[in-house]
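Table S2 (continued). Query chain:
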Amino acid sequence: MVMINSKIYIQSVGADWYRKRLQWMMAIVFFSFSVLSFRLFYLQIIEGDNYLKLSENNCIRIQRISAFRGLIFARDGELLVENRPSFDVTIIPKDAKPLLKTAQTLSQYTQIPSDDIIKTVKKKGGVSGFQPVVVKQDVSRDELAVISAHRYNMPGVNIECNSRRNYIHTKMAPHLIGYLGEINADELASGKFLNKQRGDYIGKQGVEKAYEDILSGKPGGRIIQVNANGQMIKVLDTVAPEAAHNLFLTIDFELQQKAEILMQDKAGAVVAMDPFSGDILAMASSPSFDQNTFIDGISHQEWNELISNPDHPLTNKAISGEYPPGSTFKVVTAIAGLEEKLVDDMTTVYCPGGYKFGNRVYGCWKEQGHGTVDVISALAESCDVYFYQLGRKLGVDRLAEYAKNCGLGAQTGIDLANESSGLVPTSEWKKKRFGAPWQAGENLSIAIGQGYNLATPLQMLTLFSAIGNGGMILKPKIARSLDTQEGNPVMPQIRSRLKVSPKTMNLIQKGLWEVVNNNRGTARTYVHSDEFDISGKTGTSQVISKKIDDKSLKGLGSSRIVAHAWFAGYAPSDAPKIAVAVIVEHGGHGSSAAGPIAKEIMVTYLKNLL
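Corresponding output:
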């Protein structure tokens, strides 16, 4: 009996133990389900809207569509700049997981180190991580085929077809046309580029920069559905981009080609203009460069070579190069002297080859002298002594007043960025700049375009155009019309007028005609044409660099500074259709170095008008 009771007791205790274990297990299960239910409630009810948006973002994306950039044409309709398709490899950071594995796989097909791919993605990935990051632009057909075939093994990797700028004529007018470059952080933050984002390209120089708003258009977009790897399944909706305008320039294609050829292997600039419309017919700055290298992504070595080149290939010397104008400035001195009644057409000066002032003799370029000269022959033969004496009478401040009226010392207002103002010195300017008074002897130097005088080729061009057209100083322009050759023409603008009497203008014009056509004129040998009447002025401006070697000196000494060579003029003389200014750095004499280039430009253009 005792044994039976013991067994019953043991069985009762065991049942209670299993019952308690089961209760604990039920409690744990209940608690777990309670936590899970609460979590599901939190995710689906409380945070449901947020997670719905995230879910939709994982399958629905808004994709930006860039506008095709406007084409650029010469005035005669010759296409200068176009767009071509470019297949670019992109990565969407949020989809490219794991990024390391994706980068390693992509590296095999693009030959880009995986570390570089990761750095690019992290640098340009943006805040959202859904913005495509361009890893490689303009891939070859072979690369395109391989990447497309293995795209499903690379989450987040896509091939996008974009528009790519193509400058058709290599090294033709790169300073005038400009080039594109990727927008930087400062430009984005400036607020001037509201329709741009990281990775976009904008104009960095020339027309591309000046007419960015017109050439770029406005982007559109499309809504697409993507799979788990971020690859597009289908397009749900599209908003087309706003088309950009095509731009017709004022430049004459053949004349531009001629200018580029004439300036090969030289440093300097050529700029030509219609003296009655302000249309720039040609603008060449040398040495040149290939704009397409900036689109492809210029290397550090190439960039360093460009910026360290002593001839400054990236500078548009036609508008930014500042040079002593040399004897081309003598037209300003002549105008000032005639208008101030210090000389007239009957006034003569004897030139023995030099002019003594104080305890110094200021030499004339012609050591044996010019003999007796008046204002016309002084211009024709570029007699320094005549202008030394006139400069002494005028003084710096009166001469500066006339120089500024001639458009010097100020920007011309051309529709290009980075134009320089040049320099017209005054006594007050020198006092502020150097803390020293103006010296009387300095009047002689500035009267012949030396000393502190600085001018750009474009400034001299507008001055000589004004002399040719009877006194109108025009605002030069590069843009001719939008969309078509005839549509929306850009009208000429008169900046100011020369304060010159008809008698003075006639004397200056006659002097410039004799420069080229009189037997004693400085440009007779190299610029005179039997086909067209040309007027102009040579100039030679002293510099402080670039010495010629001993063999070139022919016994003149071991060191000699080679001057810049100038020519500025217009043709035909009685009714000009073209004006030209040429600067050849370290060219020596204006008549032999710059004059023939100007003649070729003028004759080429006038022949084409016949």
